[in-house]
Amino acid sequence: MFTHKQSPAPKEWKLMTDKQKTENITRCLKKKNIKNLSLESFNDDGQIVFKIEENIPVNKRGLFLIEFERFLKNEIDHSLTIWCSAQGDKSKLRNLRGVEIKV
After folding, report:
1. In the chain, what's the furthest Cα-to-Cα distance?
2. Which residue blocks in 1-103 are alpha helix, DSSP H?
3. Can you give the residue ranges of every domain in the chain?
4. For 55-80, what is each residue's pLDDT tens digit?
5. CB 83 within 8 A of CB 49
6. Does the reported pTM lie above 0.70?
């Protein structure tokens, strides 16, 4: 059920400065014309965290993120993985009742 293979180690990614990493990610966002994601953080292990700025429908979000991750892997480094930061509760009904969910 689970693979015992290790994740690929970053190669080109580790050789880049933080400025180069930011520039490469920004270039990829512009190249794919993606305006509903913003770069939040990244680390030397190849994990990139994005914030979803505009709502992406649930039925499209997974495929959208997988395709963008594949694009980043091809453009920058094969080891990259993307993550999305936690979002607050957007339910208007729960907000009307005064229920607050802290992230």
Report:
1. 51
2. 12-15, 18-31, 58-75, 92-97
3. 12-97
4. 888 899 999 999 999 999 999 999 99
5. yes
6. yes
